[in-house]
Design a protein that fits this description.
Blueprint lengths: L11 H12 L1
Length: about 25
């Protein structure tokens, strides 16, 4: 995974939500 979290991507929020759900 590339560190593109600093860049506001269109599907970044969705990806972040999925990642948070995976961690939980």
């Amino acid at each position: 995974m590339v560190e593109e979290g600093l860049v506001p991507s269109p599907g970044w929020e969705m990806t972040r939500k999925l990642v948070i759900q995976k961690i939980e």
